Amino acid sequence: MDRKLKMGMVGGGSGAFIGGIHRMGAQLDGQIELVCGVFSSNSEQSISFGKEIYLDEDRLYKTFDEMMACEARLPKEQRMDFVSIVTQNNLHFAPAMSALNHGFPV
Questions:
Q1: Which of 22, 26, 20 is nearest to 6 (CA)?
Q2: Do residues 34 and 9 touch, judged by C-beta distance below 8 A?
Q3: For the stretch 67-89, what's the b/e string if a residue is b when 16 or more beta carbons lie within 10 angstroms of its beta carbon?
Q4: How far apart are CA 9 and CA 83, in angstroms?
């Protein structure tokens, strides 16, 4: 692989067990880098958490729709390559459809 794959994340913020597991798992082989996310439905908490894990503030979004639209506008070499959705199972559909509608694998 020439470069790391860039991952976006929906959910998995502060106190969310499964988010941490997914972030650790993605980093195990050094081939995936978390580059952006929406980590909570509370935008202040989401952005605060993103800062805690040292993500670029320009890549911390208030909603998953905002994230998909903004990432889709970035040059291909900069934007996320795929999205990991780690919300409660019953909340997966809307962010998954948004990602797919913007051309991102889930």
A1: 26
A2: yes
A3: bbeebeeeeeeebbbebbbbbee
A4: 6
User: What 3-state DSSP class applies to 75?
Assistant: coil
- Which residues have a Cβ under 8 Å from the Cβ of 10 and sit 6 or more positions away? 37, 38, 64, 67, 83, 84, 85, 86, 87, 95
Which ranges in 6-92 belong to alpha helices (H)?
17-27, 43-52, 64-73
The residue with tokens 């900069």 is 78
pTM as predicted: 0.94
Over residues 18-56, the pLDDT tens digits come to 999 999 999 999 999 999 999 999 999 999 999 999 999
Q: Give dist(CA 16, CA 13) in Å, integer.
A: 6
DSSP tag of 99: H
